Amino acid sequence: MSKSEIASGGIGNEPRLSRASVARFSLYLRHLERFERERVRNVSSSMLGEALGITDAQVRKDLAYLGNLGQPGIGYPTQDLIAALRNRLGVDRQWACVVVGAGNLARALLRYKGFEKHGFRFVALFDSDADKIGKMVEGLQVLPIQNLKETVGATGATLAVLAVPAEAAQPVADAVVEAGIKGILNFAPIMPRLPAGVSLIGVDLAIQLEQLAFLVHLSQTESKLDPR
Amino acid sequence: MSKSEIASGGIGNEPRLSRASVARFSLYLRHLERFERERVRNVSSSMLGEALGITDAQVRKDLAYLGNLGQPGIGYPTQDLIAALRNRLGVDRQWACVVVGAGNLARALLRYKGFEKHGFRFVALFDSDADKIGKMVEGLQVLPIQNLKETVGATGATLAVLAVPAEAAQPVADAVVEAGIKGILNFAPIMPRLPAGVSLIGVDLAIQLEQLAFLVHLSQTESKLDPR
User: Fold this and answer.
1) ipTM above 0.85, yes or no
2) Is residue B213 within 8 Å of residue A90, measured between CB atoms?
3) CATH number listed for the domain at residues A95-207
């Protein structure tokens, strides 16, 4: 992913935003929300750099994509920077999400309080298992997968979380796309193929663990690890 | 993360392996395991490139770090490439893992069959909640967190999965490091600070959803998205 860049808006010679910067936007936002709770009115690039373990220069470069918010000697106004980041990330609005697969992972996701706070609202839960349909799970009634299109239409859901086994990933992805979903967060250990215009982020937990094992393996065998 | 590189082994002028290549190693491995199940004896860089949605040249560059396994016109022997990738990733051995936090996420992780297949074995589950201690969860008895050091010593566990709330992340991370754990997969929405020599991979699910929302937002507002 090191080479992928995302157009930052304008045309031609505008600076381009890297995927890594976008990933850091979310982290800046988390730390800024904490600073705001602690009533810190202005934050410096070094405060954010220290929090993320990166250089001040990298922070200033990332935040320059948001406009000229920083002032030398004063820093960035915390609230303005939060608003600019939320706007840039598109999380200054509500995102309705459906979840497909009513297992333990879905339970954990529906219980997690952090999503609502960041503008994500789980509006419906689907499963194909007749034994689960109709049951209540964390405040949502499990709906049959055949209701997807109707529910997505009625709720205006844009995002879907796929918490299904590998073999269900492709048919379920096809079904949510057919229902009008524009972005998929996929927990299945297989990446479904999607038509252009539908975004996908995969969270393969075995891969995360494998990458962790690699980092430990590397530090045990070579001790030459860049921690970031 | 776009600039981080990991030393690939030797000293001096050896090529350096990027974090992005390492992330792809896991993806190559997944597809190769599928090809092996389908009894495909040799795979070409274009087969792997197509599977991952990247160029053949990038595949050849990544796989060159594993040695000279490919042959022009024939490709890579599937089994040899799998063995080389497993060796490079450090997953040609068993990794014993402990899980801290006996909630729904832990249940989902313990139930997921994909880990064992890739060499990860969950050997113990801990919680600080007196109501949970002693109960059986997916075949593991919930142990008090005070038993961490003893259990890590007895099982030889190297990795820990933190499935705890934000406020518990730092004290639990301190406790697992004190117990001898060398790598942490963190699901808490706060990144704990760790001493040098301990590796950390964070899976912040709200951030994953936020990044997905950003991709959808970008494609809705600008339609200028690099899908990778």
Assistant:
1) no
2) yes
3) 3.40.50.720
